Amino acid sequence: MTPKKKFRFGERPAIDGQSETPMTLTAEDEANLDAYVGKIQETVAILRKEITAINNGELEVISNVFEEKSKVLKWLELRTPLVEPFLHHEFARKLKIKEHLGDLKKYIEEDGAMLSRMAVAARTILREVDKVSNRNSLGGLYGKSGRKMGANASGKQEINREF
To answer: 74-94: string of b/e by CB count within 10 Å (b at 16+)?
Structure first.
C-alpha cells in the first residue's frame, strides 16, 4: 500500500473554529512571505519605470520591460497560493503585505489604463493611415469616365511577353 501524501497544512497544529490561536508559521512560510513582499516591491518598481517612460514618451522602454514584467507577475501568480493562507497572520502584518498588495494593485491599474489608451491611439492612427492610403490610391487607374482602365482592372500587373 502506498503511503498517503502529506501536506504541510496537515503537519500544523489543528485549529478548531473556536480557538483564537493563530496558525503557526514554519521557517519556509516566513521565507515565502519575505520573498513575496520582495517580488511585489520589484514589480511595483518595474511598473513605475514603465509608467514614467510612457509619460516621458520613451516608448521603447515598454518593449524592454515587457519580459521582465511578465516574469515577476507570473512568479507572483504562482506563489500567491503559498502565502494567501497567512495574509492575516501577525508576521504578514509586520511585513505590511496588504499595503504592498494595495500599491501593486494601484500601479497595475494605472499601467493597464495607460497601455490601453496607447493601444486605442495606435489603432486610431492605423485606421487613419489606411483611410489616407486608400483615398489616394483608389485601387488602380481610372479613365475620364471614372471606370478602371485596361484589362488590368483587378489591380494585378501582367508582363507583356510579345516582341
So the answer is: eebeeeeeebeebeebeebee
Q: Which three cell numbers stand for residue 155?
A: 489591380
Say how far apart CA 44 and CA 100 lie, in whole Å: 9
Query: 106-116 burial by CB neighbour count: b if 16+ within 10 A, else e?
Result: ebeeebeeeee
Residue 115: which of 42, 64, 62, 65 has the closest Cα?
Answer: 62
| C-beta separation of 101 from 40 below 8 A | yes
Q: Which residue has the cell 496537515?
A: 10
Cβ-count burial of 155 within 10 angstroms (0-12 exposed, 13-18 middle, 19+ buried)?
exposed
Alpha-carbon gap, residue 123 to 158, rounded angstroms: 35
Whole-structure pTM value: 0.65
Q: Which three-class secondary structure string do you get for 34-89?
A: HHHHHHHHHHHHHHHHHHHHHHCCCCHHHHHHHHHHHHHHHHHHHHHHHHHHHCCC
At 126, give phi and psi (nearest 5°).
Answer: -60, -40
Splitting the chain (163 residues) into consecutive groups of 10 residues, what average pLDDT does each group show?
51 46 79 94 94 89 90 93 89 92 94 91 88 66 68 56 62
